[in-house]
Amino acid sequence: MELMTIxxxxxxxxSAVNAHPGDLINSGDPIxxxxxxxxxxxxxxxEENFANIxxxxxxxxxxxxxxxxxxxxxxxxxxxTADPETQxxxxxxxxxxxxxxxxxxxxxGEVSIExxxxxxxxxxxxxxxxxxxxxVVKNGRVELRHVKKGYVWLTGAEVLEGLDTGEQVIVEDLxxxxxGDSVGTVELPSDAFAKKK
Length: 197
What we know:
This protein has a 5-stranded antiparallel sheet. Strands 8-12-11 form a 3-stranded antiparallel sheet, with no helix packed on it. Strands 10-9-13 form a 3-stranded antiparallel sheet, with no helix packed on it. By secondary structure, the protein is mainly beta. The chain has 1 helix and 15 strands. Helices cover 2% and strands 43% of the residues. The chain folds into 2 domains: 41-113, Elongation Factor Tu (Ef-tu), domain 3 (Beta Barrel), CATH 2.40.30; 122-196, Beta Barrel (conserved putative lor/sdh protein from methanococcus maripaludis s2 fold).
């Protein structure tokens, strides 16, 4: 019986049975399908960002099904090869503050990994970025301005050049604005939003 016993290499839950009593089974035929009970989040990182990542670094993850919730974790493993389809490098993350039942296999999201810290001259919401540009509100007019980005994370972006501390940028409905538009601003606790006149 010992030689006829098949053991899975991991703990998990059987999700499908592919063989039944009396079936003829060939070498390599699937008998069951299992889903592991271990929950590892896999991140795909572009080549230019992969070089600075090390195990133990802090990470933040936003899963698309859970809207605005951001979960914290750490990098546990860097896989040595890139995904052949996307040419992106794979990084395993341990997410520490999410209920295990929420880590459903196959869900997607965005990850931000902390690779360094420095004082920033200007920080803006990430959604204010339009490629390498931002809409600045100056003297009641919209000004499309090219900026140089620094660190970028899930919710924000560092601006190294092209924006001074205290300048107002448009962060919502960017496709509704154009260079030279006349606008009024409404001050909110954390952001300044522009409205077309």
